[in-house]
């Protein structure tokens, strides 16, 4: 399909403040942070939505969560943080490339949205 802003960050025709990168994923700060610490964890292989994953994605999804946890620790989020994956129109997904929001650095409210 059409390139997304995230595929342009991966390739890297669009610059981003990178926090971590390996062969499977990329972590960078959100351009419109919703908390004092707000970064995104994205797979380098484009997956449009979490609802479109299959058994072949099990290892990659686990890797994304491990990277999110390690980066949260490196960013000083020892008191806790929130992981968010938006899916589709009703889930408020704005970029159709799977991404995990990691938000922290303050007390977060519940319930969200």
Automatic annotation (TrEMBL):
Residues 5-113 form the HIT domain. Pfam families: HIT (PF01230). A motif (Histidine triad motif) lies at residues 97-101. Belongs to the HINT family. Signal peptide: none annotated. This is HIT domain-containing protein. The active site is at 99 (tele-amp-histidine intermediate). It comes from Cuculus canorus. InterPro entries: Histidine_triad_CS, Histidine_triad_HIT, HIT-like, HIT-like_sf. PROSITE patterns: HIT_1 (PS00892), HIT_2 (PS51084). It catalyses: adenosine 5'-phosphoramidate + H2O = NH4(+) + AMP. Gene3D superfamilies: HIT-like. One of its GO terms (molecular function) is catalytic activity. It comes from the Eukaryota.
